[in-house]
Amino acid sequence: MLAGISGASAHVDATPDSTAANSYALLSFAIPHGCEHSGTTKMTITLPPELNDAQPTVNPNWTAAKVTEKLAGPKKLADGSSITKRTSQIVYTAKAPLSPELRDVLVLSVKLPDTAGKTLYFPTLQNCEQGQTDWSEIPKDGQDEESLQSPAPSVTVTDAAAATDGHGAHAAGTTDSTAMDAAAAVTDDGGQARSWAGLVAGVGGLVLGGLALLRSRKPAAVRVPAARAPKE
Questions:
Q1: What is the pLDDT of residue 78?
Q2: Nearest-CA neighbor of 112 among 29, 30, 43, 52?
Q3: Mean pLDDT confidence for 29-56
Q4: Is the CB of residue 5 less than 8 Å from the CB of residue 100?
């Protein structure tokens, strides 16, 4: 098992944060090591034909550039517009060779196609100070990808996520809350009104009791004895 994990970690893998059809996804391409212990200088990621473009994320250790290709004919998009060229590759060039003892991650933003169940392959050429590794092998039908020496990074598209309307959900939640409050008022049978009346009466009693207590503690009047006539 450990040998299998070690072999898998030595590949250039594409890890998506989303796989839902017709959604945007960030694909992280991990660079595990150099070519025969030589520093990596360039990574050329080829996009599958199902994708028309990709946006490279800035990495301070690399410069990024797009390579475009002209299509055989106009390609109509879902919004009704057409394109005559597409982005075919993203090329990352290291500002300094990446040591084979270090790892790095290159991230692309892509719009996944509306083809659930489709596996997209991203053949990646890794150039090093000495030599190169071409991660471009694609398994044939029934072939285990783990049996490949240099498999191409891949992502399998899943079913589209159910559409949700945030405003509609909020409105529904408000309506439900209002309905629950109204139902509570109807089924209370006047209990809430009696409770409030009792509370008001109790507070009034406390006030009156306090006033009575203050009166009882009022100091008594001081009587001054009448002056007596002086004795003769």
A1: 83
A2: 52
A3: 94
A4: no
What confidence score (pLDDT) does residue 15 get? Answer: 95
Residue 210 is which amino acid?
A: G
On the question of pLDDT at 180 being above 80, the answer is: no
Q: Which residue has the higher pLDDT, 73 or 10?
A: 73
Mean pLDDT of 162-185: 42
Residue whose entry in the numeric block shows the structure tokens 């009346």: 197
Q: Cα dist. 98→89, 108, 217, 227 in Å? A: 21, 19, 90, 115
Section 209-227 average pLDDT: 47
| Percentage of the chain exceeding pLDDT 70 | 66
C-alpha 94/C-alpha 38 separation (Å) is 13
**What DSSP string runs through 34-103?**
-SSS--EEEEEEEPPTT-S--EEPP-TTEEEEEEEEEEEEEEE-TTS-EEEEEEEEEEEEEEEEEPTT--
**Closest residue by Cα to residue 29 from 130, 135, 118:** 135
**What is the pLDDT confidence band of residue 87, given thresholds at 50, 70 and 90?**
very high
CA gap 48, 82 in Å, rounded: 19
2-156, CATH topology level: Immunoglobulin-like (2.60.40)
The strand pair at 24-31 and 104-111 is best described as: antiparallel
Q: Cα separation of 188 and 130, whole Å?
A: 82
